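<purpose> Linking amino acid order to shape
<body> The protein record starts here
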Amino acid sequence: MIYAYTKFDHLFFNVRPNVISGIKIYGRDDTYPIEQDYNAITGEEQDIWQRLFRRLIDALDQYAPKIYLQGVEAMGLSMDLWPNFAELSPKVKAASGWKLVSVAGFLDEFLFFELSAERKFPITNIVRQSKHFEAKYEGVTISNRNEYTPEPDIFHDIRGHASYLMNRDYGDFLFDVGEVGYELVCNERGFDLQLVAHNVKHLQNFAWWTYEFGIMKKQSGSDSVRQSPNDIDHEVYGSGILSSYDELRNEAACSKKRSNASEMLPFDMEEVVITRFDYSEIQDRYYVIESFSSLHDAFRENRDLFFYEG
C-alpha cells in the first residue's frame, strides 16, 4: 500500500493519519473476484438495503445531479430488490462500455487501477451492519454504522457510483482517471517508488475531492427530473455523499448556511491534488465545480500534476 511511502508527504496539505488500518485489502495474488450468489442473499441483507435506500430517497431526489437521477431510473434500481449484477452489468455495458465486477472487498491501488483501465468497476458484495460484514471483521475494531463504514460496501458502490456509469461522458471520465492511475502504478517512467506513491496520492486526492465527495453549482434544467425542487445553490455529485445520509444532511446544512461545519471552496486543481483527507469523519470541506464538463476538462488539461518528478 502507498501509505508506507512518506518521503514526500511534507508537500501535502491537511495530512491525516492512515485511518484505513484494520481494513482487509485485496491484491492480485488474492482471491478477490467472487461470483454473486443472488439466491444466497439473506432477509437481513434485504432489510438493510431497504433501510439505507429508503432513508436517502427524498434527499437524493432533491440534491443529486440530473445524470445521476436518470442513471438510477435507467438501471431500474429499486428499494425492494437487492442489486442483481447479472441484470445490471449488461445495462451499464450498453450505456458506457463499463462492466460491474463483484469483488471480495477493498482493492489495492494496482488492482483497482488495472480494472478501471479495462472499464471494469469493482462492486463489493457485502453490506454494512450485516452478519457477513461482522464475521469478516471479527476481532477488528472498524466502524460499521448505518451512516458509514470505511470499507466501501455494495450500497456505496451501487447507490453512489454505478448509476453514473449509465452516462457515456461520465464513464469516459472515469476511464481517463483509471488510465492515469494504471500508468502510475506500472511505473513505465522508472520513478523511485517513493515518487510513485506520492503521485498516486495526488490522484487519490483528486478522486476523493471530486467523484467521491464533490459538489457543483446548481445546474439549469435539473429540477425537471425531480419530485421536489432543489432549494440550495449546489448539487451533490460525490458518491461518498450520495450514499451517506449524515454527509448529505451536513452538506445541505452548510449550503444553506445553517452550519459552518464544512467549508464550501472553489475548485482549484492544484490545491485539490495536494490536499489529503480523512476516511473516518464528516468532511470539513467540499470543493465546488462549475459543471461536469469543467471537471473533465480540468483533469485532462492537468495530467502533468500526476507525474511530479521530484
